[in-house]
Amino acid sequence: MSDYIIEAIINGIFETLQMTFFASLFSYILGLPLGVILYVTSKGHLYENRVVNTVVGFFVNVFRSLPFLILLVLFIPVTRFIVGSSIGTVASIVPLTIGAVPIVARMVESSLNEVPAGIIEAANSMGASPIFIIMHFIIPEAIPSLLLGAAINIATVIGYSAMAGVIGGGGLGAIALQYGYYRYEKNVLWVTVAILILMVMIVQEAGVRLSKKSRKS
Fold it and tell me: How far does Cα 63 stand from its chain's mean position?
């Protein structure tokens, strides 16, 4: 590979990391509260509310069901409105975030559902308010599961970021498409694929280790 392509791959790595970091951060800023709402409003929980749970669950399921490539195209006007462009690394963060939010919401809900009912009952018996129970009992108890879910979500965002290259997004996906597919440089394609796999493996291993460490503490 030429120096130019090596430099492009290095830039692509940093662009992929940038997209993954900010999309994961924003998806948790939006998805974590949604997951908590889904949990607390479900049947038998602290703020049981069938209407709220159904409405929030409906929108989460709709966006979760959309294939990411279709979501990329559908939200081009939204992306252009928010960042002023529909192509590039920064623009890709918008659809990546939108695609990850419903996944985060369902993962958070699932993690919170793993908290033993006895802990909530004990907190109730002490006279703790629902908000206090959520913040100081349920979420802390669910941290190991939440960390595993976060690793899965970040790995998903890395995969999504590669797809963003189809509509002009940056990162390794764009390099794989431009050089590996359009220019038939298979070595570039395999190198980018290997780097993406390595990124996912590192994230997943870090998630497992952090989860185990949090269980011991």
Answer: 13
Q: Alpha helix (H) ranges present in the chain?
A: 3-40, 50-65, 68-74, 76-83, 89-113, 117-125, 130-133, 139-163, 172-175, 186-216
First to last CA, the chain: 47
Structure tokens at 197: 């796999």
pLDDT digits (tens, 9 = 90+) for 34-53: 999 999 999 888 888 999 99
Instruction: Please tell me the predicted confidence (pLDDT) of residue 1.
Output: 65
> Do 159 and 200 meet the contact criterion of CB atoms below 8 Å apart?
yes
Mean pLDDT confidence for 3-17: 87
Hey, what amino acid is at 13?
I
Query: What's the CA dihedral at 123, 129, 135, 141 to 10 degrees?
Result: 10
Alpha-carbon gap, residue 129 to 169, rounded angstroms = 46
Mean pLDDT of 193-216: 89
Give the whole-angstrom CA distance, residue 68 versus residue 159: 10
In the block, tokens 């509509």 appear at 167
Query: In this model, does residue 169 exceed pLDDT 70?
Result: yes
Q: Give the C-alpha separation, 93 to 98, whole Å.
A: 9
Tell me whether residue 88 is exposed, middle or buried, using C-beta atoms within 10 angstroms of its C-beta: 0 to 12, 13 to 18, 19 or more. Answer: middle
